[in-house]
Design goal:
The protein is about 30% helix and about 30% strand. With about 170 residues, the protein is an alpha+beta fold.
């Protein structure tokens, strides 16, 4: 249910809104510093987006290119009251479509306890590659997930990248 969700490119002009989303979505120990968010928005803006519903910023994704051929979803967050509405998938697809033809794989880290996020990523074709013990500051481990090969090609289809749906306004 993506009614009236618009996806806009991330940039320094909306850093205050992204910083506010960070504070409202993540645990205090997980929040990126403003300086790091500014660096991410400046250096990764081509494949990073915010979701806006009725003029309200409801989620964001920051995706960088770590090295030639590899995209990295650094952060994805959606406000609790807007979860289970397709916002996360819309943001993921926006980044995946933007990286089409640029990368051969996309990676991310996710808490092993974050079943909702893991299910979203799996639905798009990400596979658990390995576990990173104690990745988070509270000691929780992370799954390192990868989207590549035929799974990446399938993600382009699921996200309707060729039709321009991946990063468009969804009425």
């Amino acid at each position: 249910m993506r009614a009236n969700i618009e996806v806009r490119q991330c940039g320094l002009d909306i850093i205050d809104s992204i910083e506010d989303l960070e504070r409202r979505i993540f645990r205090p120990s997980e929040i990126y510093t403003r300086g790091f968010l500014e660096w991410l928005c400046e250096n990764c803006s081509n494949s990073s987006y915010v979701a806006v519903k009725d003029g309200v910023y409801v989620g964001y994704i920051i995706t960088c290119i770590d090295r030639p051929g590899q995209g990295h979803i650094v952060s994805l967050g959606v406000l609790a009251e807007y979860r289970r509405m397709g916002v996360g998938k819309l943001l993921m697809c926006s980044s995946i479509c933007r990286l089409k033809g640029i990368v051969n794989s996309i990676v991310l880290e996710v808490r092993v306890s974050n079943d909702a996020a893991i299910n979203l990523y799996r639905s798009l074709g990400f596979r658990i590659h390995h576990t990173i013990p104690g990745y988070y500051s509270d000691g929780e481990s992370a799954y390192f997930m990868v989207l590549d090969n035929e799974y990446l090609s399938q993600a382009y289809l699921k996200c309707q990248c060729d039709s321009g749906q991946g990063s468009q306004h969804h009425p």
